[in-house]
Fold this protein.
Amino acid sequence: MRRIRKAKIIATLGPSSSDIKTIKKLFLSGADVFRLNFSHDVASTHIKRFKQIRALEKKVNRPIGILMDLQGPKLRVGKFNNGPIFLKNGKKFIFDLDPAPGSKHRAFLPHKEIFKKIKKGNKILVDDGKLTLIVTKKNSTYIETKVKFSGFISSNKGFNIPNLKSTANSLTTKDKEDLKLALKLGVDWIALSFVETEKDVLNFKKIIKNKASVLTKLEKPVALKNLHKIIEVSDAIMIARGDLGIEAPLETLPSEQKRIINACRQAGKPVVVATQMLDSMVNYPTPTRAEASDVATAIYDGTDAVMLSAETAIGSYPNESVKMMDKIIEKVEGDPLYLSINEASHVKAESTAEDAITESAKYVARIMSAKAVITYTTSGSTALRAARERPDVPILGISPNLNTARSLALVWGVHCIHTKDARSFKDMVLKAGRLAKKEKFAKKGDRVVITAGVPFGQSGATNVLRIASVDRY
């Protein structure tokens, strides 16, 4: 069960990965967190997948994170009865308010407000820009377009209109129903779509009342202008490059990715890079060289996690995709250049006892050639501090709170362990040694570095650092 790498992998579940056998394969191949994309599939399907993940969690005896991704006010086309339809360059195509299934001539666009805002000459991008159309005529009930760049259109595909003023950034009726279900099930992370300001995140947090952690998706250019404030109020950030790469100039995306990751690192907040990372593997058993480099770049940049979307949800090679991502990450993290970049991007510690102890743990582990940094954490804050330091060795995050252990599955370097809290200082040391051996992070004769808060069970108070030998355990 032990991962050699430290960056995490999020795998999206879908038609290609709906049975327990495939989900188990994905986990064993390297998936740390499973994403339920509520833009697709019905509630009963998500409930089934949720239960399968929790059943697997019991079998492997390791906390597994579940991320629920809200659709948000994203524009999407309606349904098509006969699968994808290819629209050729120069073809006329109409979007209207008729809910009937789409055809090769027209499609339902269930967003009445767009018909008022869109203008002749506007560019329409379908499915992350794979199909491009230009508006030629419009009125209050239909939008006539001409295909500029050929591509496929099919059910529920995303629909972007660059530079069109946002029509909404609040929860839709669908989102509210999906959110109610997700909180009832008990997901660990909820991805909030189309955030523009920190107020969007704060308002959302008031609704969910700490029942899950919030992963804020950066998809709109205006969010980048409010980046630091959004990071401050979020539990984690996702660089959602699909919509962001459409709404913002594509040539700015690589530098924005680096800027966002750096800002999250400085703030000590987990960050996820997502969308089209190994996109070729939807149809082929190997990625392109460019895709392999893309994954590697995200790891060199310091991301906490990388995400597979269509690759594992609808692709022909879901398990191979996870294995490939796992191999790329492991190779990068073994590169001396990665280690030097990691050291150079060290985050300055704050003048607090918690930060002083956590930073010290990294260097004590290095000097003492310790095999792991072991953190006792109730809320997860101690493990997050340890991850921010990017130590050379793995982090064992020991928590009596199962929800905390599950949420830490997203965080760089943290191997989550759910167990009872230490009862005393002696018990803290004994338990740490036993778990380090059991989880195969240390063996007889090895040292580990332990951080914890005393009194035990008190959230957010890291005030103890101990070097321990596992000789006696």
